[in-house]
Amino acid sequence: MRFHTRKWVKPQDLNPNGTLFGGRLLEWIDEEAALYAIIQLENARTVTKFISEINFKSSAKKGDIIEIGIEVINFGKTSLSFKCEVRNKMTHETIITIDRITMVSLGEDGKPIAHGKTQVEFVKDRLDADD
Q1: Backbone dihedral region of 117: left (phi > 0), alpha (psi from -120 to 50 degrees) or beta?
Q2: Residue 47: closest CA among 102, 86, 8
Q3: Percentage of the chain surpassing pLDDT 70?
Q4: Domains of the chain
Q5: What pLDDT shows up at residue 126?
Q6: How far is the CA of 105 from the CAs of 31, 40, 88, 130, 131, in angstroms?
Q7: Residue-wise over 59-73: b if at least 16 C-beta within 10 A, else e?
Q8: pTM recorded for the entire structure
Q9: How far apart are the first and last CA of the chain?
């Protein structure tokens, strides 16, 4: 699993229990998933279709640095699916796991459109191909 994004847990991210609010964490995960899928599918009109069961394993507190990891598990005709893990950057303790997040590529009409991708591509490789 590749960990792409780090977040610093700040006071405004906390719930009344003094730990990271689950809704804030899910917001960060959804944003990371969208950015990852948009870059992979090269389509800014990529949206969240499905998020499987979410398993909260531990919590994070103010001052913790967390990192969000994504691993592609399937390229569909119009979609991209991956699993996700969020962990504490310093201790590597898992905070949350999600078995499947599915993002769908949309056309201008708002309907699913085939993206033609079959494997993970890195932007640096796309840039090197243009040379």
Answers
A1: beta
A2: 102
A3: 93
A4: 2-130 (3.10.129.10)
A5: 61
A6: 15, 10, 31, 24, 28
A7: bbeeebebbbbbebe
A8: 0.89
A9: 30
